Amino acid sequence: MLFSSISFLYYFLPAVLVLYFLSPWKMKNNVLLLASLFFYFYGEPMYSVLMVVSIISGYLHGLWIDRARGSRYAKIPVISSVITSIGLLMYFKYTDFFITNINWIFKSDIPPANILLPIGISFYTFQILSYTIDVYRGEARVQKNILKFAAYVSLFPQLIAGPIVRYTTVEEELDYRTHSVSDAAYGINRFVIGLTKKVLIANTLGELVEIFNNTGEKTVLLYWVMAAAYMLQVYFDFSAYSDMAIGLGRIFGFHFLENFNYPFISKTVSEFWRRWHMSLGTWFRDYVYVPMGGNRVTTLKWIRNIIVVWFLTGFWHGAQWNFIIWGLYFAVFLVLEKLFIKKLLDRLPAFMSHIYTLLIITVSFVIFKGEGMGEAIETLKGMFGLLDVPLTNMITNYYIKSYSVVLTIGAIGATPLVSGLVKKAAANKLCERMISLLEPVMHTVLLLLVTGYLVDGSFNPFLYFRF
Amino acid sequence: MGKNLKNIAVIICFVSVLAGMTAANIIKADADLSYSERRKLAVLPQYSFQKLISGDLFEEFEKYSLDQFVLRDGFRSLKAVGTYYLFRKADNNDIYVVDGHISKILYPMNEKSVANMAKKLNDIYERYLKGMNVYYSVIPDKNYFLAAEYGYPQIDYGRMIGILGRQITDMDYIDLFDSLSIDDYYKTDIHWSQDRIIDAANKLLDRMGTGVRISKSQFSEKELYPFYGSYAGQYALGAAPDKLVYLTNEMLEKAVVYDHEKRTQTSVYVPDRFTGMDPYDVFLSGAKALLEITNPENPDGRELILFRDSFGSSIAPLLLAGYSKITLVDLRYISSEILGKYIDFSENQDVLFLYNTMIINNSYMLK
Questions:
Q1: A145 and A124, same domain (yes or no)
Q2: Would you call A215 an interface residue with chain B, using a CB distance cutoff of 8 Å?
Q3: Cis bond leading into B108, ω under 30°?
Q4: Chain segment B216-242, per-residue pLDDT in tens
Q5: What are the extents of the domains in chain B?
Q6: Residue A463, domain member (yes or no)
Q7: Residue A320: in which H helix or E strand, if any?
């Protein structure tokens, strides 16, 4: 079930809100658990069993790790947990990738397994791992109540598109959390903003990307517009899901960490990754990069660590080489920045650093978008004038004109400009009153407008089917 | 407004929209049809364990929740407002309005589909039509007249006709592009208006060698109003209606239309259908797989086999003056494989393939 669907907004969510707030405190986690299981079952009936198996595995491993603590064999349960979780992920997500590559290398003819990827497996696998590893490290207490643990893993706000919520983030709130008018209003605000970003901005930009995919009359300008539109689409889609997850979580009393912080205003690639999909970045930092030695090792080993982490980051995003190359592409720039060009970037005027970063990120999303490297290379050639296509044509001009407002809104909305202005305005008492008056009205208008877009059956892709 | 009061207002507004819509959806009786979208609406899915496990039950529910949403047309209008006026997009779901005409973007050209169309025609020729007088013609969609002039994407019509010309063998092409103008089409509909296609009909009659020429004076005009074409519903923002005009005379009133599928006889024009889901069904009762129109005044003349889409419904009555019988074949609803069971192909027949450019660009729908 998608947040941006009529079934979620006008059937599932109202029912869950009523049940949740009417149920006594003791039952609230169970209500969330049942709702979350139904939420997942709605989209993945058969794979619900897999998620339940993963939950039971994570729960039992947590108990085992706790019981083995201090013994000679303390590492065995955590290793078992990692092997089990990663094993399931490997099987369901990467089997065909490996078969394809084995066939390519050894000229063999192993038939593909054609395993459908369970939605959200990469997210809930990493959540379970964060729990078992943190219990092993003593950073989290073991959860002895399987229903609470299951509620944590399957919590529907972040189940299928993140953010990756660490167990330690919600550990206390699983046992005790408060609900308040201000939290609910904040949650509603984030949810409606996220829904609007997804349905009105990301989906509209997605239409433009789809038009690019289908047109035979490509131009240099259209290649660039598509690259920008796709980059903004992914940002608005992904950050919208995080907004909605954070908002829904807050309504139910959970405080999830932020996942995006205006990444496109970054002046370096390393800054970009501190602002983009932060829950994934910090996951790899804490569970892969730091245990390998992080940056407190020799330069060569540090480069190795960077390569490993970014190989895995790319691979996490999808079972295709272009994702791996996408990850390694970032590794190259992170190493270059740290070893050679950081000082130069610091001396450059800010706008040049922004241009440098945006250019690298734009190219990265072309790699990310491609169904294989062939398509990505073709697009890059088109962008840099290496294909026999005109600079622009009537079709390109039409679509640029037609999508100019949404592109502009997207470009401005990807910066803190609007939120900064609102904050500044709120410092003035009169403006604050106006904003207070307008906020509920705006929410209502946006919710109705979004409903119109959904009812019309507009383009509504789910980008995370590969994650 | 204090912060707490604002927060309460936010919650009340949000809950009101959610609860209000949910309650309205539960209370509202389901509709069978959408007149504005000209289609049947999804119904509440029937439960079965198999459907539950396969996910089909929820997929069907998704369609149901969209189709049966309370004030569906109003929300579609709201979306159109957002698209045209908030985002200033030049089209909404490819629908655009210029010079009072509503049209739908036809872009890009699907060259494979055009080639498939040519292959389809060649296959039918090889199977049934060898030695017969076979013609094909293409009806331009409204974009041919509007799109380029107003800056909307347009396919290369010359290229489309060129592909057909190179790949279709043993048939003569009759060019209708220069016999038509945008004024010959309804403002709110995809189709041409029968009272404005006399020139096109004469061109076909002439090129097929019937020796017959028709004029408007041979017919009396019947008007049906208001006619909201299919684009009016898709536009979703309200449009001034057209007038649906049909041309009739004694011959057409006596002519008998036989529906092979239903094995029933009816008349050329069925004004009762004007109030149905698609008012254009006035012509030959709408989409039918296989029809025969018999000319009572010319029982022994040549016959015409017209492979057609919905545009054919309104031009066929005008062509009847040149033939004793017209057999209309709509390959969207009948497979070309089984035509021999229903039609006796003979050399006393002319054959015309008459399709509009939108069908040619989506020819895989032809069976």
A1: yes
A2: yes
A3: yes
A4: 999 999 999 999 999 999 999 989 999
A5: 3-98, 108-365
A6: no
A7: none
